[in-house]
Amino acid sequence: MIIDLDANSTYLPSEEIQEVMKLAWRRLGNPSSLHRGGQRARAEIERAREAVRYLVGAEKGDLVVFTSGATESNNMVLRAPWRSLAVSATEHPCVLGPARRVASAGAELRIIPVNEDGEVKTSHLEEALSRHTDFISIMAANNETGAINDIHELARVARSACPGAHIHTDAAQIVGKESISFAALGVDSMTISGHKFGALSGVGALIIREGIQLEPLLVGGVQESKLRGGTENVMGIISLGVAAQAVRETLSVRASTMSELRNCFEDSLLTTLAGVEINAKGAQRLPNTSNIFLAGSRGDDLVIALDREGILVSSGAACSSGKPEPSHVLMAMGQSEERVRSTIRVSFRADQSKEIVPRAVSAIVGAVSRMRSATSEN
């Protein structure tokens, strides 16, 4: 039996969503068409839009623009001709990359540091801002460590220091794991990604506060309030809507289940194996995420060894796997490259049970022990 402990990479769709897809496939057309198939598709898209709006706590006038996911959404909001940007050091590459591209065109780019637990504190933010800062991006929760930032407080400080700045948050990892309210956060835009909480891959959304003007990344059509040209990904959007509704109805139970799994796993591993430390332990974390330093191991080798035993984990962000560079997230937290390369990430699903914990811990202990033994022999 395969045990998937890499939920932060992709949270596979439930059977309910799969059944909805089968039914929708037979009866929907192009949502821009006037015939009944097209109008059915249009109605399903709008139903999904409202489900996403309710899930993330957006107000009626806020825009929910469907995209292919967080990467496209983040690129869209960073397309504007910003003059001075401030982004946190632990942002996902789909924020850091576009920010550096804007900087290469002449904009000022300031990196907001984090503490040893990967958190952006108000003091860090205040030091990074200037009177010229017009774009600020701080992720709601980190994809590698699970560390959660207090976006409401950070946005309040940013708004006070830079009243005209656009404040953005990448919420791809937190949606579906913790309650979040776009309206209460005080930001101007927020990104989500469907496959992080049970929708199909290749669909997400950019939430934009009412009155905020952005330039489209994709032009050539009037779809999505003229902000995302091209025929909509109907099946993906429907899956996003179904997942959003399911998550909203069961969020507290989901969070509790994931938290119990994560805590049980960490407690068991810490008491069974020496030389283990939990990264970002002092931060408020996502309920399902554990980033673990295992002395005497090599993260990438450990991922492969565990895969052979049917245990799926990650040595960092899925989009960065296979690259020789150490995690920029852990490095920003002040860790050494040697320690970073001895780290794995374990992330749980809400539909898993505690029965998987002993097998996962046993496999990790065995693999790490073999690595340590091989090292000592050499």
List keywords for this structure.
single chain; 378 residues; alpha/beta; Aspartate Aminotransferase, domain 1; Aspartate Aminotransferase, domain 2; 2 domains; 7-stranded mixed β-sheet; 13 helices
In brief, what are we looking at here?
This protein has 378 residues and is of the alpha/beta class. It contains 13 helices and twelve strands.
Characterization of the model:
The protein is α/β, with parallel strands linked by helices and 378 residues long. The chain has two domains: 136 residues, Aspartate Aminotransferase, domain 1, CATH 3.90.1150.10; 232 residues, Type I PLP-dependent aspartate aminotransferase-like (Major domain) (Aspartate Aminotransferase, domain 2). The protein is 42% helix and 14% strand. The chain contains 13 helices and twelve strands. The strands form three sheets. A seven-stranded mixed β-sheet has the order 2-8-7-6-5-3-4, with helices on both faces. A three-stranded antiparallel β-sheet has the order 9-10-12. Strands 1-11 form a two-stranded parallel sheet. Strand 3, helix 4 and strand 4 form a beta-alpha-beta unit. The chain starts with a strand and ends with a helix. The relative contact order is 0.16. The model has no long low-confidence stretch (mean pLDDT 94).
